[in-house]
Amino acid sequence: MYEMVFMKTKSHITIYDISKRLKISPSTVSRALNDNPRVNADTKKLIVETAKQMNYKQNKLALALKSGQSMVVGVVVPFINRSFFSTVIRGIEEELKPLGYHVIICQTGEDSSAEQENIYALLDAQVDGVFLSTSTGRTESKIHLNHVIEHDKPLVLVDRGVDFADASTVVIDDFKGAYEATKHLIEQGCKTIVHFACDRKFDIYENRFLGYSAALEDHGIRLDSKKYVIQTNSVIENGRAAVVDLLKQNIEFDAVFSASDFAAIGAYLELEEQGIGIPDQVALVGFGNEPFIKYTRPSISSVDQSPLEMGRRAAQLFLTSIKQKGEDPISEKIVLPAVLHIRNSSKKLE
Amino acid sequence: MYEMVFMKTKSHITIYDISKRLKISPSTVSRALNDNPRVNADTKKLIVETAKQMNYKQNKLALALKSGQSMVVGVVVPFINRSFFSTVIRGIEEELKPLGYHVIICQTGEDSSAEQENIYALLDAQVDGVFLSTSTGRTESKIHLNHVIEHDKPLVLVDRGVDFADASTVVIDDFKGAYEATKHLIEQGCKTIVHFACDRKFDIYENRFLGYSAALEDHGIRLDSKKYVIQTNSVIENGRAAVVDLLKQNIEFDAVFSASDFAAIGAYLELEEQGIGIPDQVALVGFGNEPFIKYTRPSISSVDQSPLEMGRRAAQLFLTSIKQKGEDPISEKIVLPAVLHIRNSSKKLE
DNA sequence: CTGTTAGCGCCTTCAC
DNA sequence: GTGAAGGCGCTAACAG
Questions:
Q1: Cβ atoms within 10 Å, residue A138
Q2: CB pair distance less than 8 Å for A297 and B296
């Protein structure tokens, strides 16, 4: 058996190649290419030109190893093809690209241990910071988050945060958004408002539930968690199933406030199929303002999360953290407003 | 003025730290950590354990510099928060993550020169391959694509490809999809079928146009490009404007086949607002099968592009290219089927 | 203004 | 089975 021999044809040009060609030391080449003032204008010009001509490209990897800055950040989300998450990422990318950063994306599939692995892999890859929309609930282990901090890298929690002192956070005002949505339904005359709560081990969903509860209380409606608060997931089929269940149990209700647009659209589909009129018999409000939510008929009311802005702000938090490197890290918390978009699914009165 | 002094507190552990602590040479530590057989089982165990205890993490950057493999790929798309693109990326990520690759995402904003810059930046970052859904039309310069090939990195064109010999490609059968969509409309009795063509400098749109034309011809309908083929962009407002224009010009039509779901939904909104019945007065078929397209009422027919599968296949093409490194690169071309999903917007007959 | 040297963290010959 | 040395490509002292 013969070993395969791979000719490692060097496909890229280094400053040494330029150095040799021009008989100028590598450091001068480096200086010239970095526009260092302490180099003769003519030689600089010469170097820059031959570099271009030789099609030289700076190896960022070497630079990263040398400088300790990779100029890469990692973003960890449940699924990248959810409009909310991809739009957050868009915001991050657009804010960071002008500064020369690259964005690595990771998906957890909503699995906490996959989240851990992703974060470790990102640290291995020497990212300069981590953005996370977590799938780790309030009670679960957060050592992977500690690791990020220990490695002295900024950690920015986006939307799905957890209480974690050393991380910056950007969220929307979930409580207020939910409160407004519920209040709106009450003002439309709804008395028995079902809440699709999603998983309350996440703060965002807990806060939406609390907003719902507070609105009921403030308007003299007794909260009946057993009957009207349903744990769903943020999945279309779950919303459908929840409606099926309510009907099967003969629970009467005149509105649904869903903490997720996906569950909301599931409810919409099922109600429609069952011939239950929206909003006349059941009014409907979702949460997230996903792009598809306004094309149903009736169009569905929803609370906007301004994902693009969340991404941008998250990126800005990262940048301020980077700048104050070395000092004691200050973790900032941004709360964006949650704006209710009222559409036809919840207009009982004109 | 005093210069600020930054104590570069080394936040990470290297094999040298382990080496010193254990008084074992770095090379042995390296070998142990890489599970090299030529190291004593006991020392190996010792090393692995202290590594874990010291919270050692391998610096992939150093490895990348050494090995010439960064284990990072770059994906360049117009916008990451379009469902189609983010789902393609999801497919790529899911296929490549098990092999240890990271995915960097870049957005061009549909701008050809931004695309060039992105690609150069990715090459600087020493990515192992580039996935591209191009914004560069048939007639524009493709030097940036040549650069990728010259650097000996696999280039995979996804969906929006251009003729480029040295790149692998995965597309769907746009011609057939468009043909089927148009044929379906004809079979529903439509005679005057408008085509929203998008930008035909991209092959995908050109092929959709050709499919539309061929279907008309095969069914004895004369193609009237001037009257019925409208250049729109893949944007909701463009679809709206196109309908407004048609009405203003008093052009009669009984169907729209849009090469883009976004333009299609624009048409839907405008037709609805004008009180024009879908499908009775105007039947409607889109292209892309975006998630939102089926929630309108009537639901809109559309040609599916199977973006997840496209992403997966693209990743596989990359992997085969990587394996045959050194040999003459073979560029493969995959054509996935385009499946028409018939919904209520195009059912004139029962 | 320019060249020499060293080192970022790792792996991998080459010796022993 | 283990250690020493060199180099991936780059920059930043340190000399001159």
A1: 12
A2: yes
Expressed in percent and rounded to 5, the helix, strand and coil fractions of chain B are 45, 15, 40
> For chain A, which ranges sit under pLDDT 50?
1-9
Provide the token pair at B311: 């992403």
Whether residue B307 contacts residue B133, with contact meaning beta carbons closer than 8 Å, is answered with no
In tens, the pLDDT along B62-113 reads: 999 999 999 999 999 999 999 999 999 999 999 999 999 999 999 999 999 9
State which nucleotides on strand C lie below 7 Å from a protein beta carbon: 1-5, 7-13
In SS3 terms, A146-190 reads as: HHHHHCCCCEEEECCCCCCCCCEEEEECHHHHHHHHHHHHHHCCC
| pLDDT reported for residue B324 | 81
Smallest Cβ–Cβ distance between A61 and the set B65, B102, B107 belongs to B65
Closest by CA position to B194, among listed B71, B68, B67, B286: B286
| pTM for the predicted model, two decimal places | 0.94
Q: Where are the beta strands (DSSP E) in chain B?
A: 72-77, 102-107, 129-132, 155-158, 168-172, 193-196, 229-230, 255-258, 283-288, 301-304, 333-336, 339-341
CA of B28 vs C1' of D2, distance in Å?
7
**Residue A41 and residue A24: Cα distance in Å, rounded?**
14
Give B4's pLDDT tier (boundaries 50, 70, 90).
very low
Answer yes or no: do B81 and A103 touch at CB < 8 A. Answer: no
* Structure token pair of residue B176: 């057939």
How do A339-341 and A193-196 pair as beta strands? unpaired
Cβ burial, residue B284 (10 Å; 0-12/13-18/19+): buried
Mutate to test the interface with B, among A86, A87, A344 (most CBs of B within 10 A): A86
pLDDT average, residue stretch B186-209: 96
Give pLDDT, residue A3: 32
The pLDDT assigned to B2 comes to 32
The DSSP 8-state label assigned to residue B99 in this structure reads: G
Task: Work out the pLDDT band at B330, boundaries 50, 70, 90.
Answer: confident
Distance CA A280, CA A261 (A): 20
Average the pLDDT over B248-252 and give the result. 96
Cβ of residue A26 lies below 7 Å from strand C? yes
In what helix (H) or strand (E) does residue A262 lie, and over which residues does it extend? helix A261-273
C-alpha closest to that of A125 among B49, B100, B35, B52: B100
Q: Is B105 strand, coil or helix?
A: strand
Query: Which residue type occupies B55?
Result: N
Contact B152 A105 (CB under 8 A): no
In angstroms, the Cα distances linking A296 to A265, B234, B266, B282 are 9, 21, 14, 19
pLDDT value at B152 more than 70: yes
Q: Which of A58, A102, A126 has the CB atom closest to B60's CB atom?
A: A126
Partners of residue B302 on adjacent β-strands: B286, B341
pLDDT in tens, B298-317: 999 999 999 999 999 999 99
Q: Inspect the interface and report whether the beta carbons of B12 and A80 lie closer than 8 Å.
A: no
pLDDT tens for B11-40 read 689 999 999 999 999 999 999 999 999 999
Q: What's the maximum distance between 2 C-alpha atoms anywhere in chain B?
A: 88
Q: Which amino acid would we find at residue A262?
A: F
The nucleotide lying nearest B23 (C-alpha to C1') is: D3
Asked whether the beta carbons of B264 and B292 are under 8 A apart, the reply is: no
Exposure string over A32-50, b if 16+ CB within 10 A, otherwise e: bbeeeeebeeeebeebbeb
Whether the predicted pLDDT of B326 surpasses 90:
no
Asked whether strand C has any atom less than 7 Å from the CB of A27, the reply is: yes
Q: What sign has the CA pseudo-torsion B62, B66, B67, B68?
A: positive
